[in-house]
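Might I ask for a little of your time on a matter of protein folding? What I wish to show you is a protein chain and, alongside it, a tokenised description of its three-dimensional fold. I should value your view on which stretches of the chain appear to form regular backbone elements. You will find the record immediately after this paragraph:
***
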Amino acid sequence: MAFGKAPKDPFGTAVGSLVDRATFGALQTEEWGQFMHICDVINATEEGPKDAVKALKKKLSKNCNHKEIRLTLSLLDMCIENCGPRFQSLVVKKDFCKDKLVKLLNPRYNLPIDMQEKILTFIMTWARGFQGMVDVSEVKEVYLELLKKGVEFPSSDASRGGPKTSSLPSTKTSPSSTNPAKCSLLPLPTGPTLLLTPEQIGKLYSELDMAKMNVRVMSSILKENVPGSENPDDMNLLQKLYKTCRMMQERIMELLVTVENEDVIVELIQVNEDLNNVLLGHERFSRNRVRFLENQRIQRERTELYRKQPSAPSSDLLDLSIDSPSPMSTVVQTDSAVSPSGLNCISAHPEDKSKHHPSIYPQLDLATTTRAQQFPCIKEQVTITSLLRDNGI
């Protein structure tokens, strides 16, 4: 027995069927003409926005087909640009931006980096608001939740129409170089929300300008210094700026959940992104500096260990002078193979006594000649000893 009507198939509507066909995984690339036709149908019918969002939800729900997800994100991007507030007000709800889009960032879906960045860019851009009357409070909450979890959003330079053209001020001449801006940024309201007065907005913008100045100075220091060979004065200033910017970011996060002024929220989000980027840059700089110092320490330890190892004796330490007797000079004889003690030894020139071969060690020959000159009786003694042996005496 049926207790109610069966849920309607999101792909069963006119718009839903078009969405299903335009995001089919077998397609090679986006069919932009078909995407624009879907936008026209959404705008032309009363139920078009709701039917389209339902179809997009189903296409994204528990889908591990990266090709279909990529096509769906491309279609969503075009619909956001062309379908107006009726469609935009539906996709910025939590049941779509959080339960469908953000859930795809789960590691089990293993989305490519560019697709993850596209989803994060959607959330970040929608949180700033639309030109029409669209309530972005829910997507803003999702954005703040991700920030608090430490999610790093893509750089928003592209969404601002390109990189900033303003040059960074010198760290030596900037007014913030000696006195980083203090973090006041208005007191917290007593109630759950706060609608700022024009005077409060003016004061807040002035303090946000100081925060931007600190961000620029901090960025300049990080670019001008190399980890491991930093300027000590710059490092002292960098630490002060880091603490100040960290306090400013915490204060901005508190204001984002309490302030109601849409323009102020957009400015707070932008400054928070700049602070987040420069703080991440400081953390990368610190890690590289620690790694450099660790490598230096290891290199010093290796050098000390090498110096302590015993080295082989140098040939320069051998005394080969004629004054100090050499082991070879006591063995080599000039004419006979018999030593004064009667032991047989190898002659210095056994092949030809008349032919002289230069010695590798001329100082040894010189020592032998000198010794023979000092003891002329050696040769005579050897001859007499031989004669006595030959006669059996």
About this structure: The chain has a mean pLDDT of 74. Residues 262-308 form the longest helix (47 residues). The CA atoms of residues 314 and 373 lie 33 Å apart. The two ends are 142 Å apart (CA to CA).
